[in-house]
Amino acid sequence: MSTLLCKHCAGNIEAEDSSCPHCGIPLPPHHATQKQRHFVLWFVALVLFCFFMMVWLPPDWSPFTGR
Ligand SMILES: [Zn+2]
User: Fold this and answer.
1) pLDDT on residue 34
2) In this structure, is residue 10 part of a structural domain?
3) Which end of the chain has fewer beta carbons closer than 10 Å to its terminal beta carbon, N or C?
4) How many domains does the chain fold into?
5) CA of 37 to the centre of ligand 1 (A)
6) pLDDT tens digits, residue range 16-67?
7) Sign of the CA dihedral 20, 28, 15, 42?
8) How much distance in Å is there from the Cα of 33 to the middle of ligand 1?
């Protein structure tokens, strides 16, 4: 499983942990899945952004080809 960082003590916590094993602070339920979903959303947004940029603004390779 993925290892995460505690926001309180910056120790390593597992995605299944309900509380931090280092400082004992309670972790919100599904804290890992929420974070991963956020990451996926940002990744999809970035891919879509790049796709539309290439459609609307085709890259100009002239500085690299010299023509
Ligand atoms: Zn902690």
Assistant:
1) 66
2) yes
3) C
4) 1
5) 22
6) 888 999 999 998 877 767 667 788 899 999 999 999 888 887 767 677 776 5
7) negative
8) 18
Distance, CA 7 to ligand 1 centroid (Å)? 7
Q: State in Å: Cα 63 to ligand 1 middle.
A: 51
Q: What is the pLDDT of residue 43?
A: 94
Tell me what pLDDT residue 37 has.
79
Is the model's pLDDT at 10 over the cut of 70? Answer: yes
pLDDT of residue 12: 93
Q: Compute the distance from residue 2 Cα to the ligand 1 centre, in Å.
A: 16
Best CA proximity match to 32, nearest among 50, 51, 17: 17
Cα separation, 59 vs 19, in Å, equals 49
Structural contact between residues 36 and 44, judged by C-beta atoms closer than 8 angstroms: no
How many other C-beta atoms are found inside a 10 Å radius of the C-beta of residue 27? 19
Nearest-angstrom CA–CA distance, 43 and 38:
9
